[in-house]
Amino acid sequence: MQSPIHTHLRILFLIPIVFVLPNLGFLADFASAQPLPIIFKSAIRSSARTFGLLMPLIILDVICGIGRIAASSRCVWAFARDGAMPGAKGLMKINWKLGISLNSKLLSLIVYILLDLIYFGSSAACNAFSCVEVLTLNASYTTPTAINLLTKRKQVHECKFSLGTFGILCQYCGAWSILTIPLFCMPLRLSIEVVRVNYASVVFAAVCVVSSGWYWARGCKSYTRPPAPGLRRESHGNSLSFVSRIFICFGTEHHDA
């Protein structure tokens, strides 16, 4: 229900912006890669009114930021609980007085602030991290889907809920989003300069190297799967195949033949 509503709202938001767009080369010359304030100011020629038009977006960004911190802290706590992160003992602790995982929430807040501060040092680096946010999100969605398709869905043949042939079609559509990874690694325009180079591919590769290095050095030995209902918690160690571990990491039940 939300997706159709969001789609119509985006169209209503974009239509008036398209009619007041300035020259695209003029927008591309700004190193910040944030065209919306420039579009508004070029249309109404008033800084105060531009700020007023941006206020709903600023408020929305604050609300989304709170949601992101809450969601990321929950992921940090879950990974720490399963022994998949450095400093897991401290990050998995629950503050029972507040009813939250305070340490993981503080870590998420600090990382969020540090990422925002990057903009003051280098707009190119900030844009790279912004693109990597989309890249890593799409990778987390498409990796288990692609593996599931490559293994002919053998890992989930006994799942409790199945869409049958329609499920295969949905997974192919989901795996198609992997094409956005090279798209977000491309530069904004052909005249590439140092300040406008898209370093998203470098940051994305660094994230993959660090994550893979931690997994092989420590994670594969200390990681324990999330406890499923009715099953006791058990450590897998090195007894499972690499593909099985990936499915377990994404919460998919693995059934040996």
Automatic annotation (TrEMBL):
The chain crosses the membrane at residues 12-31, 51-71, 161-185, 197-217. The keyword Ribosomal protein does not apply. It is a multi-pass membrane protein. Keywords: Membrane, Transmembrane, Transmembrane helix, Transport. It is found in: Membrane. Its main location: membrane. GO terms for cellular component: membrane. GO terms for molecular function: transmembrane transporter activity. The keyword Signal does not apply. This is Amino acid permease (Polyamine transporter TPO5). It comes from Colletotrichum tofieldiae. The lineage of its organism: Eukaryota, Fungi, Dikarya, Ascomycota, Pezizomycotina.
